[in-house]
Write a structure and sequence with these properties.
single chain, about 325 residues, alpha+beta, Arc Repressor Mutant, subunit A, four-stranded mixed beta sheet, Zn-dependent peptidase ImmA (M78 family), IrrE_HExxH, Cro/C1-type_HTH, Rad_response_metalloprotease
Amino acid sequence: MNKIENGLQRVSALQLARIADELGVRIEWFLDDAPPAILSHRNLREPGAASPVIDTVIERIVRDVEFVLAEDKKAGLVTVDPFMRPTTNAEVEAMARHARSLLGLDDQEPVKEIAKVVAPQGLLVFALRLGADSADAASVMLERGGIALVNGDLQVGRRRLAVAHEFAHYLLADEYAVDWRVAESLDPESWEARLDRFARALLLPEPGVTGMWNRCVDSGDDVRTAAVRVASYYRVDMSTLARRLVELTVIDHSGAHLVRGARTTRADIVELNLVVADELAPPMLPREYELAVLRLYRQETISSARAIDLLLDTWEESSLPPLQPLPEDAIWTFVR
């Protein structure tokens, strides 16, 4: 490797293939430039800095998505016009209301299946296991649309919050973002704290949350029971709910402590008739992307091995659809 890097030894195709196999990347990674957003991100970092797991995984996803979009004429992503950057909490709340309207949501209902809801706006969400010590999420803007990668090792509430956070980056046209710990910013005036608040406001709209909380309390629920009902309905974790209720001045900090300590039990699910949904369970790929890969496979644009590779090894070859046998005269389309 030292001789190769110093130009003292040429690299054969076989050697390059072996290096690619050892690094777990495709050989064209050495021949084609990385997507512009990723190149820009690398240029901002110190030379030689270690690349976190999420950087490597999202680069693979971006390359694969761009390949599929280029080959599949039916596939295509839209790009929304960038939102104005909020500078105050009031502007953050207004941005969240605008985003919910864009997603076709009113000011009361929960965001169900958030990955499916944001996809028509051009953001494709992938959820893969990256390890407990990896970043929560990352997002990359494409020429059209964008990609969000969520750490599947998070609990479901944090996975949903991470998608909402990456949706904010997407709406603001942030070229590349890696978020190590969503909703853990210590400075309430920091940029990431504003995006965290947007994520909470998107998932927990003020009119709906305050109205439901007050109805629960008026009907006799204690703080714990009210928290279990509201968190289940809006599909958020207790920490996210507690922070949202405080910023909406629905409860004080002592009440927030009680909410954070609440845990939904099996008895709660039965007695309160709660809906339990395990969204973004890893491995999860966007349905639009899977359909595009299957179209390329059915058209025999790609092989079964390439299809499995594009599906990030989350499928078995036996799961691919059977191909129609070609007629005998089809050979003349390949032989001139």
